[in-house]
Design a protein that fits this description.
Elements: E1 2-4, H1 6-14, E2 22-23, H2 28-36, E3 40-41, E4 50-51, E5 58-59, E6 61-62, E7 64-65, E8 73-80, H3 93-112, E9 121-128, H4 130-134, E10 139-146
Length: 165
């Protein structure tokens, strides 16, 4: 399972959009349905991919959309946590959140070309759950979005165009 950051969760809940996005294994039936709907495995998302929020608490796939089409999110940065990230300790969501916040924010500002405080664009991240960590998921995927709704362009260098009011 993979999950969406608490920041995006709150924003989505407040906007009556998708609740918490987490990723889990899928059955053969859902895989066939996803294939028919043109969806890709969420673990296959890459920097530059754009996609929409899902109206589900758990998902295994999303439809990657050309960034010139209306979409909710764009992956702008990805990195992996070290295998020994938790040392000898157990999986800790808060430690993952802190690390993702520390890395996604500066990458966000570089990507959008504006400081977080001066743009209405926002960021979030997909991160490993305790279950996916056990299956060797170490990936943090940072995503940019506009709180005003869907956008039809890449958000790269667009921070100044989305002025915070």
């Amino acid at each position: 399972m993979r999950s969406l950051s608490p920041t995006k969760f709150t924003a989505l809940l407040a906007a009556s959009l998708a609740a918490l996005i987490s990723i889990s294994g899928c059955s053969a039936v859902s895989s066939l349905t996803d294939l028919a709907e043109g969806k890709s495995d969420v673990f296959a998302l890459a920097v530059g991919d754009c996609f929409n929020d899902e109206d589900a608490e758990t998902i295994s796939s999303v439809k990657v959309i050309d960034c010139t089409e209306a979409h909710d999110n764009e992956i702008y940065f990805e990195y992996s946590l070290a295998n020994d990230f938790f040392g000898a300790g157990e999986f800790d969501d808060d430690a993952v959140f802190a690390d993702a916040e520390a890395k996604c924010l500066p990458a966000f500002e570089d990507f959008v070309g504006a400081s977080y405080e001066n743009t209405s664009l926002n960021y979030s991240y997909l991160y490993p759950s305790s279950q996916s960590w056990e299956a060797d998921d170490r990936s943090i995927q940072c995503l940019a979005y506009w709180e005003g709704g869907q956008i039809s362009e890449s958000l790269e260098s667009k921070g100044p165009d989305y002025v915070l009011e």
